[in-house]
Amino acid sequence: MEIRRRDFFKLSGAMVATTLIKEDKTAEAAHAPEVSEDAYGCLIDTTLCIGCRKCEEACNERHKLAKPEESYDEMVVLEKERRPDETSYTVVNKYYPKNVGTLTWQERPTFVKFQCMHCFDPACVSACIVGALTKSPDGPVSYDVAKCIGCRYCMVACPFQIPAYEYHKALTPEVRKCTFCFEYVKDGGLPACAQVCPREAIKFGKRKDLLQLAKSKIKNYPGKYVDHVYGEHEVGGTSWMYIASEPFEEIGFPKLGTDAPARLTESIQHAIFNHFAAPIGLFVTLAGVMGFSNFYKNGKETKD
Ligand code: SF4
Ligand code: SF4
Ligand code: SF4
Q: CA Rg, the chain, in Å?
């Protein structure tokens, strides 16, 4: 997500306005709770995905999102790298292998489904000064439109460029992102995407079991997978994880460190609010958050 100057000043203006009326709301930008041992997760095996887009369609239908102009049978959209937006909580992208060798399965393109990673210590939750985003100990990061003031700090803070905003709605815009289908999962249901996937490329379950599954696949098929479970440690761990046959930075993933960016956004925010800094301090804060987010995005913060 490219942050333009105009957007920066819009956001900064919102921040100043918010400060004037919400100086005492800092406490609501709370730490995420500890994730439970039995928290839910999903594991995506990109080697199984065939790019059929059934997951996109199922998600769109379950959440009654606006229908895309082109049908889900239209595969040409996969040629363009997309990000989730307010009409698509999840998108599938296609990546071509960089080093084509002998005729092996590795020569096929890799399809990658993206959605909210449901981070353990989410930057979006930390950045939200009114507590509209919350992390459940069960895994999902949920959004409460009734609390949202439309400041869009969550969009700036997310290292995966996930939250989207309904700019086209003048009166009732919302932040939109994958819900983990928690409204179904909490009653024993499945995420629509995992339920529909014809290749079982998306496995839903307890995160700890999925991590074991990922590691055993990597161990049992050493030539097939790179030795990396994306999301095991990135940004402090995420509820959604991936395994793949090539380095993740070659298939659309940002190279991130193991510290949660939430720690920085939160500590800057708390310092500013607690000491009643002048509005100019808030401009600096936001610039810092944006810079930090871009720093992550550009893959410079890595401990690998
Ligand atoms: S991926 Fe972004 S939107 Fe999702 S939980 Fe993490 S920080 Fe929040
Ligand atoms: S978990 Fe639900 S909301 Fe998230 S991508 Fe899958 S179907 Fe969409
Ligand atoms: S439904 Fe499964 S196989 Fe089809 S694009 Fe989505 S993840 Fe890939």
A: 19
